[in-house]
Specification:
Elements: E1 17-25, E2 28-33, E3 37-42, E4 57-63, E5 66-71, E6 89-95, E7 98-104, E8 106-114, E9 118-120, H1 121-124, E10 132-136, E11 139-144, H2 152-164
């Protein structure tokens, strides 16, 4: 995972930046560090999934023979969760040693972000979040930490569920 300014005290050079993948969920613009992104897909129609699923998991999808959990993180941002729409896109990421597919409304593209523009939310609200924010001309961009999309208990539940599939 990329190191940020707080973790690397000697990084004051404006030219040093990190690549991110920008996307939109509802009206919220978000991003992930590009090094955790495996691939981006257009959504396809999916059927109904079983009722007994880990938190925010809609089911499993098959990508080139790999079973990958289909995750909807909308509720974490106060947005209604739902089914996959054909207009959605899926971002496959590596997190905690497993691949996950995140449902987003739109993948905007990639960008390099200068390290000094990244603000750790825990610096502002220590109990709030492991994620980060970036202020740019279009407003605030949430920079998600792929290793902390779920609590450790939620990841354990997800891994156990995957082993049963």
């Amino acid at each position: 995972m990329w190191q940020t300014q707080q973790e690397t005290p000697s990084l004051n050079d404006d030219a040093i930046g990190i690549p991110i993948l920008l996307f939109r969920i509802g009206t919220l613009r978000s991003a992930l560090f590009l090094d955790c992104v495996v691939q981006v897909f257009d959504a396809v129609e999916v059927g109904d999934f079983p009722d007994s699923l880990p938190k925010d998991v809609l089911g499993l999808i098959n990508i080139r023979g790999m079973k990958i959990p289909l995750v909807d993180i909308r509720r974490r941002w106060g947005l209604p969760g739902g089914k996959v729409q054909l207009s959605n896109q899926l971002i496959v990421i590596e997190s905690e040693g497993i691949n996950l597919s995140i449902i987003v409304d739109e993948v905007i593209g990639t960008r390099n972000i200068p390290l000094q523009k990244i603000i750790h939310l825990r610096d502002l609200l220590p109990e709030f979040s492991p994620h980060m924010a970036i202020s740019d001309l279009d407003g605030i961009l949430m920079l998600l930490d792929s290793e902390h999309l779920f609590s450790s208990n939620e990841f354990d539940e997800l891994k156990s569920w995957l082993e049963e599939q």
